[in-house]
Q: What sequence folds into this?
């Protein structure tokens, strides 16, 4: 499964302004409203907050990958944001984040969830790709950048 196929222009937020980590996660979960039954959004959000309470998903290099699993969804869904201002996220490197990739999936597909998290980490580990994302000015450019980068590294 490709990451770019989980994203679309409605689930990518460019130059997002938020007050705090909780506000950020809530806004990202809300972008999924066009893909999942909206009655499941509170449970999805709770699953992401619960995972975040175990340990911060701020992985360093300005990136956070909040994620969670829900029994009420059958597919993986994703959202992505580039923040207008870096935000404190309790990251492992102590630095604020400016990019956030949300991943949510079903309880029943744990191995796929882990594979997708690994792919996000590998893709976002490229400093040139992170620079490219930050230079994008809208959601379509970000989506195109993900597709191009993922095709370059993962599709042969």
A:
């Amino acid at each position: 499964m490709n990451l770019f196929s989980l994203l679309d222009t409605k689930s990518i937020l460019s130059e997002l302004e938020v007050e705090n980590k909780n506000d950020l996660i809530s806004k990202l979960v809300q972008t999924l409203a066009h893909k999942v039954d909206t009655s499941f959004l509170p449970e999805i959000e709770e699953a992401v907050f619960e995972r975040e309470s175990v340990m911060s998903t701020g992985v360093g290099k300005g990136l956070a990958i909040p994620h969670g699993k829900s029994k009420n969804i059958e597919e993986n869904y994703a959202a992505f944001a580039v923040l207008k201002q870096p935000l404190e996220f309790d990251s492992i490197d102590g630095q604020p984040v400016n990019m956030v990739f949300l991943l949510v999936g079903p309880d029943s597909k744990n191995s796929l969830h882990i594979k997708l998290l690994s792919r996000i980490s590998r893709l976002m580990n490229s400093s040139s790709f992170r620079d490219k994302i930050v230079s994008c000015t809208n959601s379509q450019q970000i989506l195109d950048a993900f597709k191009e980068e993922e095709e370059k590294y993962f599709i042969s």
